[in-house]
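Archive entry. Fields below.
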Amino acid sequence: MSFNSFGRMFRFTTWGESHGPALGVVIDGCPPGIVLRPEDIQTALDKRKPGTSKFVTQRKEPDEVKILSGVFEDERSDGPRTTGTPISLMIENQDQRSKDYSDIRDKYRPGHADFTYDAKYGFRDYRGGGRSSARETAARVAAGAVAEKVLAHLLGGVWIRASMVQMGPDTIDRDNFDWMEVEKNPFWCADAKAAERWAEKLDAARKSGSSYGAVIEVVASGVPAGLGAPVYGKLDADLASAMMSINAVKGVEIGAGMEAAALTGEENADEIRMKDGAPHFLSNKAGGVLGGISSGQDIVARFAVKPTSSILTPRKTITAKGEETSVQTKGRHDPCVGIRGVPVGAAMMALVLTDHALLHRGQCG
Amino acid sequence: MSFNSFGRMFRFTTWGESHGPALGVVIDGCPPGIVLRPEDIQTALDKRKPGTSKFVTQRKEPDEVKILSGVFEDERSDGPRTTGTPISLMIENQDQRSKDYSDIRDKYRPGHADFTYDAKYGFRDYRGGGRSSARETAARVAAGAVAEKVLAHLLGGVWIRASMVQMGPDTIDRDNFDWMEVEKNPFWCADAKAAERWAEKLDAARKSGSSYGAVIEVVASGVPAGLGAPVYGKLDADLASAMMSINAVKGVEIGAGMEAAALTGEENADEIRMKDGAPHFLSNKAGGVLGGISSGQDIVARFAVKPTSSILTPRKTITAKGEETSVQTKGRHDPCVGIRGVPVGAAMMALVLTDHALLHRGQCG
Amino acid sequence: MSFNSFGRMFRFTTWGESHGPALGVVIDGCPPGIVLRPEDIQTALDKRKPGTSKFVTQRKEPDEVKILSGVFEDERSDGPRTTGTPISLMIENQDQRSKDYSDIRDKYRPGHADFTYDAKYGFRDYRGGGRSSARETAARVAAGAVAEKVLAHLLGGVWIRASMVQMGPDTIDRDNFDWMEVEKNPFWCADAKAAERWAEKLDAARKSGSSYGAVIEVVASGVPAGLGAPVYGKLDADLASAMMSINAVKGVEIGAGMEAAALTGEENADEIRMKDGAPHFLSNKAGGVLGGISSGQDIVARFAVKPTSSILTPRKTITAKGEETSVQTKGRHDPCVGIRGVPVGAAMMALVLTDHALLHRGQCG
Amino acid sequence: MSFNSFGRMFRFTTWGESHGPALGVVIDGCPPGIVLRPEDIQTALDKRKPGTSKFVTQRKEPDEVKILSGVFEDERSDGPRTTGTPISLMIENQDQRSKDYSDIRDKYRPGHADFTYDAKYGFRDYRGGGRSSARETAARVAAGAVAEKVLAHLLGGVWIRASMVQMGPDTIDRDNFDWMEVEKNPFWCADAKAAERWAEKLDAARKSGSSYGAVIEVVASGVPAGLGAPVYGKLDADLASAMMSINAVKGVEIGAGMEAAALTGEENADEIRMKDGAPHFLSNKAGGVLGGISSGQDIVARFAVKPTSSILTPRKTITAKGEETSVQTKGRHDPCVGIRGVPVGAAMMALVLTDHALLHRGQCG
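PREDICTED_STRUCTURE:
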């Protein structure tokens, strides 16, 4: 029942604070014999890492991953392979700027976990948010890269893609949706025009010290029917937990999501035909999950990320001693943390699917 | 890692199919010494049970609960008390109408789990949906009633209330919100006027064999700050999993939910003042959870329930053998399953909070 | 982390007290499509059930099992088959003799859990020991019968047998060991001569109100190499937990067991040759487990059951109020609880192996 | 259900191979606010580390522990304190002697996990045994040192001590038992005279390339009544799993252990009197556990460690390709691995007790 672990069979545990010496993840239950090189993980980390555009925190972290266990390169093999034993990955922190933390040490920043950590634990590591920092998501991305290798090994062509589909109140135009675009703009946005608008808006927000929220959509294609399980081990229940556990997430949707409430039964039913000898759904309101089990359609999950709580405008707050005061957050922050949530959401999708692929194989062969 | 269990320390396992002899739940980890009478559970079950209005399924089930283990009435005590050992609750099914299931046996009903169960397990109990039936939620409600007793014992005045806040595209008016109303209409709706409109609309839908989706809001008041834990054991991550595991749920929100994406950082920050010697938040965009830990504010969760998939209008589908056909669902179904989701959502909230109350006491004293 | 569950993937949860209305078990994670009839389970229960000889408790319990969920008999199938959803089994208690429990209500019986339950929970269900009664093992045997069906389905010819190998200080002669004998005497003893001696001794003990301990040996043949996992999921670690969790067990051994300490490295090494194209071990000091993983040899586990604590000779004790007194246990008790431990040990072996067979398939294919 | 994790609430996960870059442990669920300095852990590791006498492997490892997360030193506190978030401990491997492993790469060493790892995973990290190496126990000892700090914080005067009580067939004399002796001889033996005999015998075994098994006894004093839980979460079931998971262990006993089988009910009953206002047991056949719950007496566990499998005498074996051959293990090995099992057993006792102390507080307050 550990708090910092996720997954049932492909189970990982993350550790580390924003300003500690390092952070990392231990993955247990990985199948053996899968080629896993540091660069497989590094590529994923590089996508997420800070400092890559003016829209994400300017903290400079090389985020170089070390594989400390769980792989072995036999002189007869074509690369290091997973051994089936725990894979320990570590990323050392480098740029823990030695600043004066006295301000946030004593004041609770609204929207942050400062107050609740103190309420729970009696004190907290206030440097950069400690364990509540989004820096933890580097460990998820690293684990997700391993999961992607396992998925490819187990299921062949599963393809996980993610796009920011809304920034602030500005939503993409689905007619412009093109997965080819996501690597071409700093928002991982599949709508090139939206990305242009957002760049302008976010630049303004950044300069004024404000921030925007976002919605991320993650789509997994090529997932076979049959993954997931009733009733608390539902694929969508695990996805909901996975996405909601990401920093700053306040809502999770599968398929039609909250909009499903507004549909009639006729509109919501994804009708089925045969195509090329296989079941073919005429729509995907279900987001690829029925009764908690994958249907073979695209798995579609969305989540809302609240606007960065660290803003320049002073906000009313209190100190740990209960004195009323105000706080203004300076420092190197993302004006839209949702941007960095894109690879994190994709990683969580990969991790949930890998787990369920192994579970399904275990129970049903 | 069992699929049909939920919770870490206050852990329950449900079992049973729609048309089997019975369904039930085993609760493990319950604190000892709490008075628990069958009527404590029965009252909760009666709220949820079918046949109570024309808007819910006309299946007649007394839903009488039996406590089979885990309580003991000493001749010196004032009622049966929990012993700290597993509490087994059973509800016998009565009205499994012996109908001809040959239609749905071979056809996959769109929106139902028929196809995915077959894809996963190779065959399925097709009678009334088997394990995928919403009848399983009776076990959740029973377990939730026990959780409420534990919460009262541990935390005193925690108050969990739930309201339907949207039916189809029709949303309540927050200005009309009055918790006193929820027991007065068949929708558990806190806006009496909305309930009137919905009654009319749903009656029409029922007659035409159509169905509506809904949004349910669950609010827990009086929860102390400090429940929950980083980072995969977050209170909101567990709530997301809990709510998404309910039948037909497609989206889960905490606080501002999906709308958080549209806010600026200034709007989203819940500022803090002191009031009566305690921290007092000026708004609750966070829904009472920061960094995965309760803040002492109301815990606010919402979830969207898709429209009932069983409708009279024929829908295109296929048979288990891959033949194209169509299906029309007759039978005793709810035109808006969201209605019965209200007590289920409240039960899941109680179960998650109880679990975290015990976990917090275990780790932090 | 539930206290009353066992297993990782093939996970079962037992519930029930000695004198409650019923006891039972819920099995989660069972593979689908396995024919499971009540009589498959009943046969196993009948072996364990009380009242079958003068050496076991004279409590009369039919121990009739009901399958409440998790199986479905399609009109096209050749019997009820597991559906992959939770299997709920219930056994109703019949002969809860309405006796006066005032004696043990207030006095702590030495060797029983009376004192510790009170110390932990503040009070206890004192009727027949409540949850601490060996009656719980009926649920294990029922679950074990399901596990045996799964093992046969997954691994083919796995054969689990158990024998009492010691009663009191009297040990069997290995030269007389013949599995054919175990069904022929009330001790499930593979040495017919030892069984004769024991019958005489135990009859004397029974008459004098005394009791004997025992050692049980459980052997699983036909288990393929590769089940188990480093380092806390070792097959032998799980077996140790499984056997030690049985009532009254004080020691568990794998292979050479405690005697391994007295061996030299030369004696302990199980040398390997080839035979019929497969590895062939020349001895089995390891008991079929190396590094926590099965080697393909027989899995050999032994456990010691302490003598029944319920004896006629008065023993010094205290009351719940801390008064010194003495207690003499009357009632229907087994003079050697080890006898009924034989089918229970075999059941636990089947349950552990089934779990690991599924886990291995999940991780390694 | 991870394989490399142990514990329910105080849960730790170990990782690392004998000849990888490092090994370590992540502890989740630790209470906050406990002062934890690297030297608290280092002291424990130094006791276990290789190279400290001629009776343990001459591999030179400083075993220096690094605390990578989970503690924070506020400028106002008197030392680094646990924060309640995961504690990550790492020990870098230094002396992975670059030897030629071609011999054991292809041959299965009898008594080792070489064959079973290959059978399970298809290949293995053969350098020093990889994950199956006793080097993993350094991570247990590190975690155990944290557990001891928590126990002191939670329960005050719990005192965990361990002694080797048998080497080969030579058992200590209980009349000589003196805990003061254990730090004075290289065997951690409470009987000084036995230690002298063993030194002579083991020296001879070492020179001849042979090895001895051992029995270790671990005793925890000051444990309050009430820790543990029925029926699969029994304190003794968890201890059995904990001890059996240690490398080379083949048997585990609680209290009278396997000898309990030879006792009569009268002999086995630990009678109870009052002393200084508290229950006082007149004997401890139960080893401090009744019904899976601690009784307040000393918790007494014993385990048998088989003789080191790496011996100079050639043993018959096969190669990975199925050719018959023989193997002789050279290298830096312990002639009695049981010696280093002493601090490991004590660590596992501390870990199990800490877990149950938190669990008990969670469930029962």
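CURATOR_NOTE: Chain A has eight helices and 18 strands.
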